[in-house]
């Protein structure tokens, strides 16, 4: 019998991210593979030809370490590459160079609105080729493009700490934001430079998990997880344990469907990559990476909330793009220096969707100040103009009193005329209303 009261949404992620290094992971071919003529960026190494030897890309290793550090992981002093075996036509060597028991980084966490999500590991591997299903001479064929084969691919694995579909979406977005902030990948889900797999169950004790692949947008992440949790719950309610399997998200039918039995680790016959010696990283190197790490979106967000008293909704918007996150504090500091009110300034940026990267912050602040100093909000002064305006347009006043509320427009217009457009329209409207009510 399955204990129903113990059931709890349990979700973990595996996130694959293609690094935008200049060259591939183990050869000198260009790593960029989008929109190119198939099989033009290849060589014996990334085609898996016999005898070709891999040489690791140092930049890719450094960037993997940076991602790990940004996710609060520890960098493992000793690390190595391993061969992960499986047969598939897009993998010419029949093994992928990956990392097994000594990943570059482990034991981190990501802050979320529902607490910490633990990061199990961050490791580096190579991407596979791409299969293209086409028709040639009227016959359905599968073609292989090896331009993507050997592109550096970082894999981030979380613990099953994610508790809902909405939470999963937040975690995925935060990882994307963080990696983009480090400028090491475009993390473009549509182009496949960020790919998500979710492991879903109703509790770790139940000893099964269902892996969902093909989640290529944040919307699908949410929908697929919602659907899969409900599907499993129905089975569990009938005392049936869901099968351990891999399912794909069908975006047309809006449901997940079974694909294959999930491999277990033993199936991959992992063993150390004999062509690449194990690596050792010293403290000096690790510290130098820590120094290189830019201020992270989460730190900036917390500073906006705690130091500048900005609402958490606005803080979230302001750090959502790496560029905005980079400039917002500088802009706020300049605004304060110029005597502007921080919350007014931030409201303006958020509500008018001002792009801090394409605007000159100095002249933006100047403009705001000028508008402010030009405005007249002295109630006594405005009151005098309102009196004058009321006697100028008696018809409008009568209309207004009869209930034609739109007539207030021409009275405001009069005040604007009398004040050369400087009277604060909000205050003007209030004073007119008050005066016409009183009479
Ligand atoms: Zn190559
Ligand atoms: Mn992988």
Task: Write up this protein.
The protein is of the alpha+beta class and 439 residues long. It is 37% helix and 21% strand. It is built from 13 helices and 16 strands. The chain has helices at residues 58-70, 165-181, 218-237, 283-292, 297-306, 312-318, 322-337, 342-351, 361-374, 379-392, 394-401, 408-418, 425-438, and strands at 10-18, 74-75, 78-79, 82-85, 95-98, 105-112, 115-126, 130-136, 139-145, 152-158, 194-201, 210-215, 245-250, 255-261, 271-272, 279-280. Strands 2-6-7-10-1-11-12-13-14 form a nine-stranded mixed β-sheet. A three-stranded antiparallel β-sheet has the order 5-4-15, with no helix packed on it. The chain has a two-stranded antiparallel ribbon with strand order 3-16. A hairpin with a 2-residue loop joins strand 6 and strand 7. Helix 5 runs antiparallel to helix 6 (312-318), helix 10 crosses helix 13 (425-438) and helix 12 packs across helix 13 (425-438). The longest helix has 20 residues, at 218-237. It is elongated and about 95 Å long. The N and C termini lie far apart (78 Å). The model has no long low-confidence stretch (mean pLDDT 91). Residues 24, 27, 29, 42-43, 45-46, 150 line the site of zinc ion.
